[in-house]
Design brief:
It is a single chain. With 172 residues, the protein is an alpha+beta fold. It has a domain at 76-167. 13% of the residues lie in helices and 30% in strands. It has three helices and twelve strands. It has helices spanning 2-11, 15-18, 30-38; strands spanning 42-43, 62-63, 75-80, 86-91, 102-104, 109-110, 119-123, 131-139, 144-146, 149-151, 154-155, 163-170. The strands form three sheets. Strands 3, 4, 5, 6, 7, 8, 11 and 12 form an eight-stranded antiparallel sheet that branches. It has a two-stranded parallel sheet with strand order 1-2. A hairpin with a 7-residue loop joins strand 7 (119-123) and strand 8 (131-139).
Length: 172
């Protein structure tokens, strides 16, 4: 009976007791740990490149932090027209970086007007790193007939106080 009891104890023993732990690799050394830690991506320590047409995959092992703010490519600006219908819009945020040539994104737009006649705005000089000069005109209510053609003349003096917005991005 004793041998039967011993045999049943061996047959029904816990699997954990029956296992032999034999590591396949020796314990990690300080050098091994340093190698593994070096392969873990680290947070970025510098501002990344601004967005670009077509993008770029990159090869850095760094990642962006959750509070990271990318540099802005485009700039917007606004100005209030004077009695001559002109103003100089300054780029919001910061000027364009030195060495870039700003390119306008469309024509300037008059924003705070309930005008019933068309307003036309144009850039009067090449955009600079800090802003751009603008001039606007508005149609008058009087019609003029020249050689049988009816013309709607433009007048800048009616636009004093109107806000104009502009947008640009750095050229290539």
């Amino acid at each position: 009976m004793r041998s039967l009891l011993l045999l049943s104890a061996l047959a029904f023993a816990s699997p954990a007791l029956a296992q032999t732990v034999s590591p396949l690799q020796p314990p990690a050394t300080a050098a091994d740990i340093a190698t593994i830690q070096a392969a873990i991506p680290q947070p970025a320590t510098t501002v990344g490149n601004p967005e670009a047409v077509g993008g770029q995959v990159g090869s850095s092992m760094r990642y962006k932090r959750e509070d990271w703010v990318p540099p802005r490519i485009s700039r917007t600006g606004s100005c209030v027209l004077n009695a001559l219908g002109t103003c100089t819009a300054t780029w919001s945020g910061s000027p364009f970086p030195a060495g870039t040539t700003p390119v306008m994104l469309g024509d300037p737009v008059a924003t705070n007007t309930a005008a019933t006649f068309p307003i036309s705005c144009n850039v009067t000089a090449a955009p600079t790193l800090t802003g751009v000069a603008v001039k606007c005109w508005q149609g008058q209510s009087s019609l003029v007939s020249i050689l049988g053609a009816t013309v709607l003349p433009f007048n800048a003096t009616l636009l004093s106080g109107v806000t104009v917005t502009v947008s640009a991005f750095p050229g290539t």
